[in-house]
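User: Please predict structures.

Assistant: First:
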Amino acid sequence: MIILAFESSCDETAAAVVQMDEAKGIRRILSSAVASQIAVHALYGGVVPEIASRAHAEAISGLTDRAMSDAGVSEKEIDAVAVTSTPGLIGPLLVGVNYAKALAYAWDKPLIAVNHIKGHVAACYPFFPDLKPPFTAMVVSGSHSSLLEVSSFTDYRALGLTRDDAAGEAFDKVARVLGLPYPGGAEMDRLASLGNPRAIALPSVAVPGDTLDFSFSGIKTAVVNYANTLRMKGEPLVPEDLAASFTRAVTDGVSKRLREAYDRRPFDRFVLAGGVSANSHLRAAVAAFGKKRRVKVYFAPPAYCTDNAAMIGVQAYYEALAGNYAGLDLNPSAVCDI
């Protein structure tokens, strides 16, 4: 099955073509085209939804041509059109959904709606032929921090969620405190390798009590208060130490939740996905957990951790196998349904 897929849930417009056939062991990404809006949103220190929507509208047609050309396929060879329908920023989602609906109608192809969170997990499938449900997964991105039980390619159950902000948004906020350009994830990763991870005491991101939930609002406030206190005292802030201490607090919180989830119900495979899963310190912490508990850990290549349409196309294939097709009355939703 050859699928043309679109992703426009936030600030990256993406189109991709994938070829999937589980019976023959085929999981191929034929093309993946992404148009980033980082330069535009960096001026504002974060994503501006209206600007993002307009940029998606300007880029999506050209990206479609590029993805089709790079894959070497024609309209006739496309078996279905897929698109991210939830969750995300409603304006950007509307651009992708409406374009995909128009294309599916014009080409007389079936339409498949894909949950963005499931797409992030699916990014691993083309790179690990042995990866099949059931397994446990965690998606850590700019808007989501979700610990998930994956019982089949299409059936997900939330074990723990963030109660407020997400890991990626928190990394960007701390980066802003340090005066780093948006997005600050990569530079935070680098600085954390140079600093003392125990220089600054910061609150855990693991919510206390009988829960597997996360909270990132407290640690963001603690970082802002720490920086303001030093400024009022006229004392210098060491960027490397703050980056290292913040990163340690996040990785320790995630590791704590993984241990607790494992103790509740042991699992032998774990997928770490989403943009923040590219962080080297988080990967190392999860790998250490896997080694200690004899859990096989899967990470997508960094290029496929961030938003892309290939992951949407891969998940769409499994939605199609389950008979989960969408009609032309499809409407996007900003709210995650997992």
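Second:
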Amino acid sequence: MTMTSSPNSLKQDAIQKFSDRKAVIGILGLGYVGLPLMLRFSSVGFKVLGFDIDPEKVETLNAGRSYIEHIKSDTLATARTQGFEATTDMKRASEVDALIICVPTPLNAHREPDLSFVINTVDAIVPFLKPGQIMSLESTTYPGTTDEELLPRIESRPGLEVGKNFFLVFSPEREDPGNPNFETRTIPKICGGHTPGCLEVGLALYGQAIDKVVPVSSTRAAEMTKLLENIHRSVNIGLVNEMKIVADRMGIDIHEVIRAAATKPFGFVPYYPGPGLGGHCIPIDPFYLTWKAREYGLNTRFIELAGEINHSMPHWVISKLSDALNERRKSIRGSRVLVLGIAYKKNVDDMRESPAVELMELLREKGAEVAYSDPHVPVFPKMREHRFDLRSVELTPESLASFDVVLLATDHARFDYDMIRRRSTLIVDTRGVYLEPAENVVKA
């Protein structure tokens, strides 16, 4: 394919290549988003080349082994036999027809967007881009990122013009790790293109692997759609967390109230309080919009208030734990605390932004001796901001009895909650697991 090919022929060639499943798919970032997407494209007959900067991940994948609990090694081994390969060599971006970016978009220390993973990835592959390719950004970000950050970088490559001989879309990830009711194929996919031609190629790309692709008018509309989805959850969780505090002060069980309200067949959707927000999306994404809104002279007070409430939850939980110990003539300092469940949500091994880790930090700062038990996380992982040299404690009647308090942070199904209640001196329940009142259970 040459630089002189007409824009329409390049677009039609790309669409045909995806339709015939002869295209090579490149996925940059092989984590909780990129790996399931790779498996899906591989399963429908595409050759997939995966890129990651972590040599250990690449070596593990090329050996047909998984490092994510809910992704089984046999599915990776099958993908390998179907042509999947992982690499750290960004020069190989020239070998693929689609470049799908699935890298983290965290916040920095000032709670501002950190696009360094996205920008560094794009900068690394720009020298190897070629006419006829499509680039899709799936990482959640603020409206305008695709146009303002990716577009000029692509067009800095001599001879490339987005919408004419190169195609650019934003198609946000919608993964829900550990949810057995949905998989990559069955979750509808939003796609917005920089131009109508870009959108056509994007729909051809994702239409081969996803049951339903939902087109929107622009990359900015697609970026805003993803933020709305997660801000909707953040605001509603913030509301129910605030209701939890009010109900607690009034001596009312908020979980009983939520269960009762949920019997209404219309106009009410149940959200559940917890020790804080976890995962890579809900604690982070709202601040991407609040940051960008300031550029337009707007203050997103409603969104920021929900964020403040959710961010304060770990501190409220620790105050409840402190009060419960005080009533038993103990202080946090010197107490042995077992944190039950440290993944960010039940039945997964995903530790991203887990509120349980912040609880562990707060307890350690106050002088507690902290341990944890989590069947999904046998060894505390290496994390950028948190360091604990700990292994998961096996739950036995003897081990439970050795702790002054058990802090139930993540309600994994594999825990024996009846045994935990019977053998624990004190339980602080942040998830509403224990519905019936008990002398040794404190709701938080």
